Amino acid sequence: METVLLDEKTLKKDERLYIKGIRLMSSVKLDYSTEKHLSFLVKGDEDIHNVMYFDEKKYDKKWQCDCKWYTLQDKLCSHIIAVNLALRNGRIKIPNNKETDKKGD
Ligand SMILES: [Zn+2]
Questions:
Q1: Count of structural domains within the chain
Q2: How far is the CA of 96 from the centre of ligand 1 (A)?
Q3: Quick one: average pLDDT of 56-73?
């Protein structure tokens, strides 16, 4: 699976969030990965949030988070920014699942 990261402009749209994302970058962990879905855990100030990536969704909907900010406002949150930064910097590596499952219909 190819992970499409959000572009710089999108990540930096809200500077305060971006700065928070940089701070959270070190607490990003890969939870699990499947062929079309990635799950990350981001430890925030108090809670751990679950950031998910869906390969089959449209660009701006690929990334989702379970935090209040994202759920209520449907806007990019610092957790999603943190995951994107961690992936871009190579801090987190996605295991390359090359076991092509040849499932029939
Ligand atoms: Zn979030």
A1: 1
A2: 26
A3: 86
The predicted-structure confidence for 48-60, as pLDDT tens digits, reads as follows 999 999 998 776 6
Q: Phi and psi for 39 in degrees, rounded to 5?
A: -130, 130
**pTM for the full model?**
0.86
Distance 94 CA to ligand 1 centre (A): 20
Does residue 38 form part of some domain? yes
How far is the centre of ligand 1, averaged over its atoms, from the C-alpha of 69 (Å)? 6
Cα-Cα-Cα-Cα dihedral of 21, 25, 26, 28, to 10°? 120
Position 99 in a domain: no
79 alpha carbon – ligand 1 mean position (Å): 4
- Model confidence pLDDT, tens digit, residues 20-36: 999 999 999 999 999 89
**Does residue 51 form part of some domain?**
yes
Asked if residue 3 is part of any domain, the answer here is: no
| Ligand 1 mean position, distance from CA 17 (Å) | 10
Determine the structural domain holding residue 84 and report its residue range.
8-88
- Report, as an integer, the average pLDDT of 73-96: 91
Question: Distance between CA atoms of 36 and 104, rounded to whole angstroms?
Answer: 17
